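Follow-up to my earlier ticket, as requested here are the two runs.
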Amino acid sequence: MGVTTPRVAADLGWALGRVTRAHLRTVQEVVSDLPGGPRGYHVLASLEEGPPATQLALARALGVDRTVMTYLLDELERAGLVARRPDPADRRARHVLLTDTGRERLCALERRLRDAEDELLSPLDAGERDQLRALLQRLAVGSDGPAPCQVAEEIQAGGAC
């Protein structure tokens, strides 16, 4: 679909929406066989970054309803990608851990996602891609908007521009 006017092409919302939709399609293709799709990927990526997280902390960090997180973790655990263990400090809480299989799968997904993103961003040179990623990350981290999963669901459902 071509841009009909320069005014539309200059609109930040239009540009972000168009790139976001293209990115969501790309990501969905890469993670389609992962339990939970993009959410499953975000769980694996979050677990790789730090100390064991409780299910509740993980749900809050990713903006996922805790009930939905339980079902998602059930699927990821059945696939051998995560394991849940009682929290030694609080037996009611469960730590979620990335398994070796989960770590291998995450590394493979990250490579495929980076390749897919590079293709999506191919009109930019490597330095511009890195700069765009850094700027968007800075905006996203400083934003108090809705959780990424909520935004993705709204866009996929056609509820956002």
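Run two:
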Amino acid sequence: MTDDPRAVLTERLALTPVHLGDLDPLHRINADPGGWAHDPAGRHLVPATTREWIQRAAGRWADDGLSYWTVRLRDAPEVIGIGGVQLTGRGNWNLFYRLDTAHWGRGYATELSRAAISAAHRHRPELPVLAMILPHNQGSRAVAERLGLIDHGLGFDPFRHEWAHLYADRPVADWPGPGPSA
């Protein structure tokens, strides 16, 4: 673990601000087609895509005071994922995570997400935490429900240009739903 005050320890995870030193393992995770079954177009096909993505995420720490962490198990140096929250131009926190498929099904996404929501509430509590999840991504929808996030139904996601469920930590008045039934 680092002495960085932005780092967080959970029961099983060590979360440190993402940086380019984690490029190789994060590219491997983001290039794995198994991790992108719900959204194949989002897969990182070349390391340059992952590099640019990490640089943007790392820059958000300075700009916004909070961004994505690199995820490791507390007792191992291996990178198992990335996640956290970022501010959006719509004035909310967007919850995001991507874990190595070898570590799915162990509750790490929920544990990481709890830490991210907690950090968002400490940093800018007036802003809602949102997760936009594709209807067929049952794993992420289950995580959102375990976190106690409210499903506001389907609406058109302007970032992805497709229909998604909006989960939030509080009521959200301006969600553009309702959309087609899931």
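The only thing I checked on run two: The first helix runs from residue 23 to 31. Let me know what else you need.
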